[in-house]
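User: Now give one protein:

AI:
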Amino acid sequence: MKPIYQFLISSTVVLMGCNPQNKSSENPKVATEVTQKIITFADFKKVKGVDNVQDVPFQLFTKLDSVQFFVNPDKEAAHLKIAYNKLDNYYGFEEFDDFYSIHYSINNNISNSIEAFVLKSEFTASFDLTLKGVNLYEIRSSTWKGSQDFKNKSFSKYGTITEVSEQEFKAASANKINEVLVKNPHIKLKDDNWIYTENGKETMITQHETVSTEEGTLSNEYIGQSPSLHLEIFKENSDETAVSYYTFYNVKSLANFEISTDSYPQILPGKNQISYISSNNDVGSDFVISQYTAWNHNLGTLLYINFTNFKIGDETKAFWKDDKTFYAEVHPTNSAVVQGKKQKSAFIKIQLKTDLLQK
């Protein structure tokens, strides 16, 4: 049979001949073989590079040695396989059925950036990250009873840390032993000032809003009273940064400022111990336990841990089940909220070694 040639881009058509022994009138079968067009980065759409991560809707992460870049969100589209580089950033902008669109800077040069489409099966979006496979024990540094340690990189020196279910977290919270902060009815907001009133005498504690400082404009929100410490607690917010502080005032002593913590405090009555857990601006999270002494208004650090592999969720949900078992809601380090998507919460349990904080 004389061969017939069909020229097609990226495909070859093969005409199958008839079996001479088959006398039926069936049409010949046609088989199509699709071959991949060879492409380079030049085949992708050029885009403006990302110079501010805050403008990125979400980031993507992979554990593969290589990933595929498609020119369109179609599995049959031309694509390029590239080796994974831990220094590369995959900035996600849109989500499709099986793909994410990304902006990718070739050789980390933002002036040479492209739009590509990557398979969801090869990446995990920042809002879908979990603690699976994460080393919770890893720490950057620690301080124990006044002694700093930058060499030890494991929390095992001080206790254990594990991920627990939300069910265990909620069940344990029903028996928490740290104080519940209750509003003091003698503290009211008046003329943009927080005022403590007793026996007809008014004492101004602090301003409510537009507090001018060297660090910018602050505002103060009343949180409640620690019955055991006899201190009133306020949340100090800044217009300049997302960082908040919790300040403690003694209203019985001319409303003097006493101490502060970097996050929502957990107070253990009878021990005069104050703890908090907060996201570190640099790496991971800080877990701090301090001893309060009223006579000199001092807050001395008993234990400081800088965990590296998770950030804090709702800081107000952290609690002590007993004097050595602490629970908190956390998120993976690179987890982020995306419009229309909730980041996945995880829950941890920290158990300190027996007598770790004993003098």
Notes: Helices lie at 166-173. The chain is about 0% helix and 45% strand. Residues 1-34 have pLDDT under 50 and may be disordered.
